[in-house]
Amino acid sequence: MSIQPKNFGFGEDETMLRDSARKFFSDNCSADKIHNLVATDPNIHRSIDCVWDKNLWQQIVELGWTAVCVSESAGGIGMPAVAAVALAEEVGKAAFPSPLLSTFNATFVLNHCQSEAATAALGEIAEGKATTLAITNQEGSWDASATDVSVNNDGSLSGTAYFVQDAKKVAQLVVSAASDKGVGLYLVDTTAGGVQMVADGIIDLTRDQAHIEFSNASAIELAAPGTGNLAIDQAMPAILSIVSADMVGAGEWLLQTTVEYAKTRVQFDRPLGFFQAVKHPLVNVMLDIDRSKSLAYNAACAYDTDPDNALRLAHMAKSQAGDMAVFSASRAVQFHGGIGFTWECFVHLFFKRQMHNQVLFGDAKYHRALLADMVMGAAA
């Protein structure tokens, strides 16, 4: 077993990156600004729109965030996965609508494709070209062997990819597709002919999701047939770490906001925080967040330094973060009382983001089941 570096490899460069992100979101993405951006219409029958600030996205690109985990040889910065996890935590804390986390996930997959086309795509990401994964089938499985997309004789793609995150914010897709030689990964431009996006109605107002239909869509091979599954499997610990860190950040916002409310809201001549029925569960939320954060950073560090154990640790991180997401969100709504479930209360933005994240790439029970299989298999 490899020995992980001190503090999960989180050094001065990663600290500076996190602090700059924290200041950026503090200056540009307060909860009221995000609410005014994405939650202008409470009508449940409203149209499915993709609302985000492209100017802020351009500023992020100029800050170099998309290049963080792209290797220097491909034109990136080449930082470890914990750097992306730190950014994901800050993104979650701001509930920031952008394709950044989806682009990180695509980056990790591309890093394992080992092809000139993948290196070129990574270079485009480093320059700010938003990218997302289109690897999930209708049943919700991201096992590449179960893809609903196939490769035609001329190399084009036909079929449908489901549950595609930030689909309308990105410029290109990393698609898993099957042929008689096996499953490979392919790069598809979202504006290419034969590509049709069908928006999904989801509860998370800070994201968009779609299923994408391909009809003889032009594609560039990133990973040869038969190697697509391997690239996805190798990247999965980092992907799960990113989603877990997003939930950690949202949980931190929910906790801080609820604690402040409990200090100022008076009931029976006492602040709400005086009562044990309020303060004890909030302490439990804090402990859950701390556990989730440690596990997310541990899994990301293992992805770089201890790959043999990375997936096991990532299952632990996603499981804990998924439970924490539900607990932190439900306590925040409950302890805000009658206003907690209203549209005007900002809590609902983070509640909905937590609910979306906790099922993204599998909920807590799913990952505990996989973890149990790994442990029992090892014991046997």
From TrEMBL:
Source domain of life is Bacteria
- Record lineage: Bacteria, Pseudomonadati, Pseudomonadota, Gammaproteobacteria, Cellvibrionales
Its keywords, alphabetically, are: FAD, Flavoprotein, Oxidoreductase
Sequence ranges assigned to domain Acyl-CoA dehydrogenase/oxidase N-terminal in this UniProt record = 12-128
Source organism per UniProt:
marine gamma proteobacterium HTCC2143
Q: Which GO terms describe its molecular function?
A: acyl-CoA dehydrogenase activity; flavin adenine dinucleotide binding
Q: What Gene3D superfamilies does the annotation carry?
A: Acyl-CoA dehydrogenase/oxidase, N-terminal domain, Butyryl-CoA Dehydrogenase, subunit A, domain 2, Butyryl-CoA Dehydrogenase, subunit A, domain 3
The name this protein carries in UniProt is Putative acyl-CoA dehydrogenase family protein
Entries under Pfam families matching the protein: Acyl-CoA_dh_1, Acyl-CoA_dh_N
**Domain Acyl-CoA dehydrogenase/oxidase C-terminal per the UniProt entry, residue ranges:** 244-374
Membership in a protein family: Belongs to the acyl-CoA dehydrogenase family.
Annotated signal sequence range? none
CDD domains under this entry? Answer: ACAD
Q: Which cofactor does it need?
A: FAD
